[in-house]
Structure formats: C-alpha cells, structure tokens
Amino acid sequence: MGKKLALGAVLGVVAGAVAGVLMAPKSGKQTRGDIKKTAVKLKKDATKKAKEVQKKATVKKKSVAKKK
Description:
The chain is mostly helical. It contains two helices and no strands.
C-alpha cells in the first residue's frame, strides 16, 4: 500500500509540474527551457531519493541478517 501511495504522489508532482509549465503564458522557447530545467531537477531529486531508499534498505537487510 505504501509503495502505491508513494508512486501516486510522485506521479502527481510530475503531472502538476508539467501542467504548470504548459499552462504558463510563455513563448515556446521559454516553455521548452522550463521543461528542461524541471526535468533535470526531478531527475536529480529522484536519484537522491533512490539513493536514500537504497541506503535504508541495505541497513534493514543487515539488521535482519544479524537477527538470524
């Protein structure tokens, strides 16, 4: 259940960011620039979160292994 909620939240953020950029009254060049900046930021944030989750999973795995 938690994974679905997290995925839904991420998709909601992405959809909101895309909708906001596309609805803004800017030229095509400015809009493309905004989309690129947003994509780069989202990728950076997603990579950071993935590393955090991987680190926590590794710690949990080691903790479970010690209990055996």
